[in-house]
Amino acid sequence: MELHGSKFDAERSLPSIKPLNATQAAYLEALKTGPQVVVLGPAGTGKTWIAATLAADLFRQRRITKIILTRPNVPSGRSLGFFPGSLEEKFGPWAAPVIEAIKDRIGSAAYEIAVKNGDIEMVPFEIMRGRSWKDAFILLDEAQNATPAEMKTFLTRIGEDCTVVINGDISQCDLRETSGLHTVIHLIKSQMLPVPIIEFTLHDIVRSGICEMWVRAFEEVRS
């Protein structure tokens, strides 16, 4: 499948996303029926893969015109400005799991053209202020590492006809202050905001038995 300008020359026949457990089914339903969803849980549960794959499908079907990818930079301990290269080259390592899922769905060539055309965009928090988006699928990954102020900045960039996924794992927060994800969850629950919260558990890990074993091992140490 190739993309010229904003048009796909040919369509591939791709299987629909199949949930592997009840939590994934609830997550997919929330994504398809509402504009926003908060998804929580450990690694290996498919949180990021499902969001990225659905975003790619919506883009391929021309139901959205843009995919926005973002995540906080806290795990690196340094600003993206420290690293050489273009914004995509700097941000790529952080967004690699999302990028690979999208490429699998639309093809590498179509992905590269979409990035060049600005239809798929990686937006670090440090350049987000003043931006606004519409008719887009917006994925915030590793949301537990966003501060409350960063979360407010992110959420107030969202315009009309957007699907927004806030994805994170509170137990993996690297901040020394309150997590913005924790703040968002508190606001949703205390003010009864119409935003579904989907929470995966260790029982929902589908990546591999090895992944589940190690996640459980580290959970035991942490507790």
Distance between the ends: 48 Å
Low-confidence stretches: none
Kindly estimate the percentage of residues that lie in beta strands according to DSSP.
5-15%
Overall residue-averaged pLDDT value: 87
Order of helices and strands: EEHEHEHHEEHEHEH
How big is the Rg? Answer: 17 Å
Total strands: 8
Shape assignment: globular
Binned, the helix content reads 25-40%
Q: Which class best fits the helix and strand makeup?
A: alpha/beta
Q: What characterizes the major β-sheet?
A: 6 strands, parallel
User: How many helix segments?
Assistant: 7
- Main sheet strand line-up: 5-4-6-7-3-8
Please provide a written account of the structure:
- With 223 residues, the chain is of the alpha/beta class.
- It is 40% helix and 14% strand.
- The protein has 7 helices and 8 strands.
- It has helices spanning 22-33, 47-60, 87-106, 108-117, 148-155, 180-190, 209-222, and strands at 3-4, 7-8, 36-40, 66-70, 120-122, 136-140, 163-168, 197-199.
- Strands 5-4-6-7-3-8 form a 6-stranded parallel β-sheet.
- α5 (148-155) links the parallel β6 and β7.
- α2 crosses α3 (87-106) and α3 (87-106) crosses α4.
- The longest helix has 20 residues, at 87-106.
- The mean pLDDT is 87.
